[in-house]
Amino acid sequence: RARYPMAAPRSDNVKEIILAKTSELMEETGLSSISLASIAEACGISKGTLYYHYKTKEDIFFDLIERHFREQEQELIAWMDDLSKDVSVNRLLMYVLDRNNYEGALRMQVLSAACFGNEDVRRKVLDIYDKFRNLIVEKLLERDDCTREDAEYIAWMSLLLSDGLIVHSQLGNPAFDPQQFIRRTEEFFKDKI
Fold first, then answer.
1. CA 50: distance to chain centroid?
2. C-alpha to C-alpha distance for 90 and 190, rounded to whole angstroms
3. Looking at the predicted structure, is the pLDDT value of residue 193 above 90?
4. Which residues, in sequence order, are CB contacts of 39 under 8 Å at separation 6+?
5. In angstroms, what CA-CA distances link 169 with 90, 164, 166?
6. What is the pLDDT of residues 24-37, one digit of tens each?
7. What is the pLDDT of residue 156?
8. Burial, 38: exposed, middle or buried (Cβ in 10 Å; 0-12, 13-18, 19+)?
9. N or C end of the chain: smaller count of CB under 10 Å?
10. How confident is the model at residue 152 (pLDDT cuts 50, 70, 90)?
11. What's the longest Cα–Cα distance across the chain?
12. Do 66 and 122 touch, CB atoms closer than 8 A?
């Protein structure tokens, strides 16, 4: 009986495999230590197949950044639009901090690339932060009890606290307990905002 090669996976599935495996590799070693050849090997695909989808590892990185922030945006919208949940400001802070804490490795690499020389990443990150901040502001303004000034402050505070939380979590700072910080932040802002 003749042997036929297995059909190649659909291209969108291959891209998802590439993104997932690259994300795993980045958590282990960092973007600078990864080559396109190592990505192809981890994915179980040829370098030609990888090149068909991505010409550079930076292109993969950009897709990872966009996917990460798009997921965060969709989850935040769903969370804030769920009328069965307590979506008070202190709960919003807890939600954003908790969610961002679990994506720390990728975020640290994104921030590092943005801060230390990759101008394309810097511009993309600033654009994404601006969109995410505006989303938080707009969702807060849908509430009757929030002014634009307060919404802007809360949006910036959530982003800045989130980045600081990620830095100390990734550093493995023994003096810092991320979960305790998140709980304390929720309690601290319970009656203040």
1. 23
2. 5
3. no
4. 18, 21, 22, 25, 50, 57, 60
5. 21, 8, 5
6. 888 888 777 889 99
7. 93
8. middle
9. N
10. very high
11. 75
12. no
The model's pTM: 0.75
In whole angstroms, give the CA distance from residue 75 to residue 131.
Answer: 14
Token representation of residue 41: 């090997």
Do 25 and 35 meet the contact criterion of CB atoms below 8 Å apart? Answer: no
Tokens read off for 87 = 């979506």
Question: How crowded is the C-beta side of 35, counted as CA atoms within 13 Å?
Answer: 4
The dihedral sign for the CA sequence 171, 175, 180, 182: negative
Neighbouring CB atoms inside 10 A of 74's CB total 10
Question: Is the per-residue pLDDT at 5 higher than 60?
Answer: no
Q: How far apart are CA 148 and CA 169, in angstroms?
A: 31
**Could you read off the pLDDT of 15-71 as tens digits, one per residue?**
999 999 998 888 888 777 889 999 999 999 999 999 999 998 888 988 888 888 888
Helices of type H across the chain: 11-29, 36-43, 47-53, 57-81, 89-101, 104-115, 119-141, 148-171, 178-188
